[in-house]
Amino acid sequence: MAADRPALCGSIGDFAAAGARTPAEVAEYLQSLGANERFDLRKACARWAALDDPHGQRQRAAYDDLIPAPRFILFPSADTPIVTLVAQLERDRLVRAVAQFRSFVAVEYSVPLTAAALLERLATPRISYFEPDCDGPDFVTTSAAPALTGGALPAASRCWQRSARASFPNDPCTDELWGHTYIGWDPGVAAKSLPRLVAVLDSGIDMHHEDLAGSLWVDDKARVGRQLTLQLPCASSVGCYPHGTQMAGTIAGRMNNGVGVVGVAPHSKLMPVVISRVEHGNLVRLSMIASAIETAGTNGANIINISAKWPVDSRAIREAVVKATGADVPQRLLVTGYTSSFAWDESLHETYPSRYRCLPGVIAAVPGDARGEDLGHAKAAHAAATDSRLRAPGVDIVVTTTHNQDGSYALAQAAGASSASAYLAGAAALTWGTAPLDRCSASQIKNILFCRSKRTEASPYPWVHVEFLRELSTLGAGASCADAIAALGCGP
Fold it and tell me: Which fold has domain 155-434?
């Protein structure tokens, strides 16, 4: 394995094999408590995330707040049916809530527990592994992507205020979408593309935005309704934190409708799945993120876009990612931004889900600017040719948005990995929706994106590029995926 590949790549699914019953940092925190000391969820999550000095030399203001009730994700032992574990938890008078998921149970206790009382409950042989069910605030970090700023351009440059263009496509902001030009986007190719289903795991999508309303996927078969329930606060712009709407427009904003922007894959459908609180953007609990990934997969998403980050390797999330994008799932890719955070000792750590880029169905987007330079901490990395990182536009992107008096659009000046992820997800959807590549598997699409990417001297990461899609117009209607791969020179 290359030295710069995430260590977990060679040990996927090793939680049970390693024999550990909880993450090492959580075990150390529990062992540091006296029997009568109360378990502090925020401290446990910060220790797990390497955001808290393990020697207790740093103090955080959040720790002075009321200690939250303990929350855990529990995995049953091999010989314990999950319903049996649920029944045991429901008999505990200190349990406030229990939620059963596909492979784990989420439990919340009604009051803060002492270390002794908590360890007594977690020591049952019916539990093989447990981890804190952290959320954004528990990490005491900026897990959610920052709100994007808008309105910094002079009024004359606010393209969304213009009338429709005379040329195709007539979306008034087309000329300002420098990222489209940089990745070789062709409106003629986009106009002929077939729709792919892109799950946007974010803060929801404004269902009434003029550039997005026709793009939203409807769960007409009601196989899993969780994502629609979570989406309800975004039924109006007032109740919707804008980040998810901003990513959605870059991926699949409608084309040639005479307003605003055009998405990279304008015919694709958007499945909104909320993983951050719609009122302020902080991430929801780890158990809900895992459930959201499962929801996207169960409902047939071809591409899962996650423009967010968190600092821990949650078993619940990792298993959901593996299940959604594994070798037995030929029709799904997960796209995210390449992200990192500083630990308590100022060392730099790649965060999740970016670190899952070693999995065959995952790609991470390194944000770049219009000069072709990488942004942020990506400059310090050295990429191998096969480490699943591609560069994509990540700054000064005109986006659809909410909470905006300027026509529901804005200039995203500091989106970074979030916008890069959306651009890469759009490029993957456009590629996969261009015949005959619509007959390809997820791994074949990923290989084509890397095969036909553009390398420059400015960065070790190649730029995602879709100009090659024009070459497919010469293939006949009966061409196969293998024919297209051969024509593109991308191997057998």
Answer: Rossmann fold (3.40.50)
